[in-house]
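Repro case for the chain-ordering regression, as requested:
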Amino acid sequence: MPRAVITGWGKCVPPLRLTNADLEQLCDTSDEWIVERTGISERRISHVEATDLAELAGRRALACAGVDAADLDLIVVASCTPEILCPTMAAMLEERLGAANAAAFDLNAACSGFAYSTSVVTGMIESGFARKVLVVGAEKLRFIMDYRDRSTCILFGDGAGAAVFEASGSDECGDGAGVLSVDLGADGDQGKTMVWTHMGSKGDPSRTIDPDDARLHFEGQAVFKIAVQGIAGSASRALERAGLTADDVDLVVPHQANARIIESATRRLRIDPDRVFTNIAHHGNTAAASIPMALHDALDEGRISPGDLVVLTAFGGGVTWGSVVLRWGDRVEPLGAYEGELPPTDATVFDLLQPNLDFFAPEG
Ligand SMILES: CC(C)(COP(=O)(O)OP(=O)(O)OC[C@H]1O[C@@H](n2cnc3c(N)ncnc32)[C@H](O)[C@@H]1OP(=O)(O)O)[C@@H](O)C(=O)NCCC(=O)NCCS
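-- result from build under test --
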């Protein structure tokens, strides 16, 4: 049976930074509080749509893998802030990339979206349906952010990350490389702890959107506990399923929600901090994009070596959780690079946030 091996990785972050000092001007918070409680110093805010971020991350991952888009069998985009619902972002990518032979769908498991997508494409590769797959996590989370609500707006940023998966069996992949096991789960009973209604079909077509409903709501402390338990439990089950233990792990690449959640969860797993990758300081929580962005940065910083055992683990709205245990292949360097960039912008970060302020908190 073929295994699903990651052979390409890419990332796209928009240029505009929203720093903690900027947030001090919008709500009652401080750089000191945000850094101490979350580990976040800045996040990016997108001047383009989520599909634009996804396209660039996808092109970079394909160039990294040396894979032609025409050879893709499947494109999956994980997102909880899709640009529109139909056509899906994956279908838009199929057209933009010229991936004429690929099936395409979006998957929403909130922040667990990349772990869920990896599990799904692993099954499709193992069953023989697909040999080359592009998975992208892409988010424009600023769309649901009330920048006067200090309990949520400090956490989230925009961005996209992508990975190319290929069926093992080629020289490219390396012996024994690929996804070894997965664990997925959900608890709808806890769904009320993280809610945004803005983008669904709730109610009548003529409904007016109430800003109070539309903003992201979550119960921070409840989510914190669920997240720590979710990540630790799910990663343990995935390791057990692969016949491995925490001692075998070279690097954990967790969903970047809060540095303290990552510390608590990995402490429970008995994995020391030098085997855990974080880039939350500069990106905040980018939901489904966070793991592929972190995976890209981990490779860029030389934190993954050929043959390493890597664990991807996430939790998110729903609530959902998911983990993937994989053996890295022989190659940790890109085969090529895509030189394109996002279109430039003259806007400031405050220009981009003004529509949110006008909608969510006009009196602020
Ligand atoms: C949101 C979160 C950062 C809050 O951190 P916390 O340590 O739980 O903080 P608390 O909510 O207990 O608040 C502590 C105090 O800080 C205040 N506070 C909250 N947000 C603040 C902010 N941005 N700046 C300054 N003070 C803040 C609170 O009002 C509270 O004040 P009080 O003690 O006077 O009542 C944390 O709970 C969290 O990260 N939860 C998970 C959220 C998440 O990851 N969601 C996405 C899941 S994918």
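Ordering looks correct now. Residues 4-360 form a domain with the Peroxisomal Thiolase; Chain A, domain 1 fold (CATH 3.40.47.10).
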